[in-house]
Structure formats: structure tokens, C-alpha cells
Design a protein that fits this description.
Length: 203
Amino acid sequence: MSQPSHTTVVHKQRPMIDESEVLDLIGRYGSPVHRTYSIQADDYIRSYRWQPTSDRRAEVVFAIQNPAGQIWLHAKAHYPARIFRLLSGGIHPVEGVEEALWREIAEETSLACTVERFLGLLTYHFTYGDEVAHFASYIFTLCADFTQPRCERDNEISAFCAMLPSQLRDVSNDLRNLIGDRHGWGQWRALAVDLVHEQLTTN
């Protein structure tokens, strides 16, 4: 008796920005602000942006608002004291943007959410000497109920806090003014916060 054959499914690695995927997201969640930044990488950024085999093609950044209009922010144990930022997570090389969004929301917050808007698509060109690395942030606004977020990954997030969109300028300023080996990281992480602040306080 012949043995049953087994088909191996090979998932194709997606590009950092898949134009057809972006058009689909626009059709469902609106057209994002698209900005490109050239960033001088320091040793800290280079240590994880230049990986021989990366586990992510880009990232999702999610600004989740509670019914009071506040945005959930998070901190990790290894962040400098009193530093919070927007929630985010990597998009695996074979994973869709929206697939990554829902996976990361579940893992990092356990909140039931609905997407309000595809707010921004930021692309970055990190340079370090003659080397260049590229990355992108897909930014979404979502709404949730009054439930307190809870991270499902052990010790991944050390604290949550909620702030009004008008307070996000202080968050980006705190990130941008970091000193030491986190200075470049703070400059980079402030950009997504700036965009969310701008879009939610002027529109």
C-alpha cells in the first residue's frame, strides 16, 4: 500500500511594503499619512536593525483608545525610568499586516478592539557609515472598551498607562530627549508618537 503524500506549504516572504496589501488596507481603513525619514543609526540601533536573518519585515504600531478617548501606552522593564511609548509589534516575513496587528494586540493587551483608521505608513532609512537598513511602521488607531490591558507574554510589558492625545507631545519629547545609548532609539520611537498626536489633535 502506498503511503499518503504530504504536501509542504511554502509561504513566500513578503516585501517590507506590498503595494497591493497597502491598497487593500486603504480600501477598508482609509488612506494613511505616508512619510519617509533618513535616520543616522547609532551602535544601539545597528545592533538589532542589522540582523543576518530578521524575524520581521516591518512593524505594526497601534494606538488603542479607551471610551474616555485616552491612548494606551506601555513600558518595559529595560526602558529608562518613566519612559512610555505606543504599543507595537513585528510583522513576520510571511505574515500579513492585519494578521500581525490582531496577533500583537492579543499578545500585548488581550483587548477586544475595532480598527478606526489606517493612520500612517512611516518608512525609515537607517544609515551607519556606508551601510543602510530599511524598515517601516504601519500605524493604526483602534477603539476598545474600559477593560484594563493585560499582556499575555510573560514579563514582556512592565506597565501600562493611558493618556489623552493632547498629552502625547510630552511622550514624544521624553523619548526625543533621552541621553546615553538609548538616544537614537528615542529619536526614532518619537516619530510614530508625533504622527498620532498630530492626527488625533488636528483632525
